[in-house]
From TrEMBL:
This is Cytochrome P450 26A1. Coiled coil: none annotated. InterPro entries: Cyt_P450 (IPR001128), Cyt_P450_B (IPR002397), Cyt_P450_CS (IPR017972), Cyt_P450_sf (IPR036396). It comes from Neolamprologus brichardi (Fairy cichlid). Keywords: Endoplasmic reticulum, Heme, Iron, Lipid metabolism, Membrane, Metal-binding, Microsome, Monooxygenase, Oxidoreductase. One of its GO terms (cellular component) is endoplasmic reticulum membrane. It is a peripheral membrane protein. GO terms for molecular function: heme binding; iron ion binding; monooxygenase activity; oxidoreductase activity, acting on paired donors, with incorporation or reduction of molecular oxygen. It is found in: Endoplasmic reticulum membrane; Microsome membrane. GO terms for biological process: sterol metabolic process. Its main location: endoplasmic reticulum. Its cofactor is heme. Belongs to the cytochrome P450 family.
Amino acid sequence: MKYYIQFKRESLGFPELLGSRKTFLRMKREKYGYIYRTHLFGNRTVRVTGADNVKQILLGEHRLVSAQWPASVRAILGTETLSNVHGAQHKTKKKAILRAFSREALELYIPVIQEEVQAAWLALLPHSIEAGLNPTGRLLLWNLALCVQAEQGMDLQSLNIESLEQLKYTGCVIKETLRINPPVPGGFRVALKTFELNGYQIPKGWNVVYSICDTHDVAEIFPDKEDFQPERFLTDPCADSSRFQYIPFGGGSRMCIGKEFAKVLLKVFLVEVVTKCHWTLLNGPPTMKTGPTVYPEDNLPTKFTSYVHN
Ligand code: HEM
């Protein structure tokens, strides 16, 4: 018997704009350069691209700029959430929450994540249903065959931090996926004072968006940038010059707190899906769209045919 998963997504409208965002942003860059004025969420905004410029913004937190998400995001997340607090409160809160993502804590989560993923597959298999994975999960699905080939011969039955760390190629597949289609396309700031950035004046009170997707797109450390080449991450690029050219998790004091957890989760998910499930993408590799985060145009219909139970 064959079972099917549909990754359902409601249309957000303006599909022609969503589909061609990369092209649109490239066109804007060609016309206006790496720093330009625009209008987002009803606010006067400066869009900032490129490692050196983004570095100033990310390291200028509390001095030049302050994290400020659009009102809608702030309302959804709540005023007391880490992303929405500042100064000493942010520092204290972040330090406390970081304990939940320490190496020891992550070690404890691995079997739980593994069980959850297994339970999810088992729940899906007996029925023909519609279900959803998060965008990164969906993105990763179509790159999985690469992992199977590369990590063959490894014992993937009992996962722990050490065994996950040994999955070098899988790690590269995750990194390359986050390079080509960063799930968080950028971060929002507000200028605390009028300051100069690479010759441009940023007025006090204006919003500043640092762009992750544009910055990856213009990064010199990634030749043949359109190609999916996980191998490019097998050798670490020399640290300093490349530091802000690859920023899927942001940087500076607002760097993603869930970064290590996300990487563990994605690796466990990949191991489970590669080693235990048999599946095929019904439409082959998808075309990705953005709105507001990345997702496959066809919702990635996938046929799961069996699951190997431990
Ligand atoms: C692949 C998965 C993920 C990506 C690509 C990602 C990306 C990001 C980025 C780019 C930022 C910085 C935003 C900024 O500069 O303002 C950020 C911040 C944040 N992320 Fe993530 N994230 C991921 C997963 C997670 C997970 C799993 C959690 C929690 C369990 C999480 C919690 C947060 C929080 C709380 C912040 C705000 C940090 C602060 O303001 O100090 N993220 N994330």
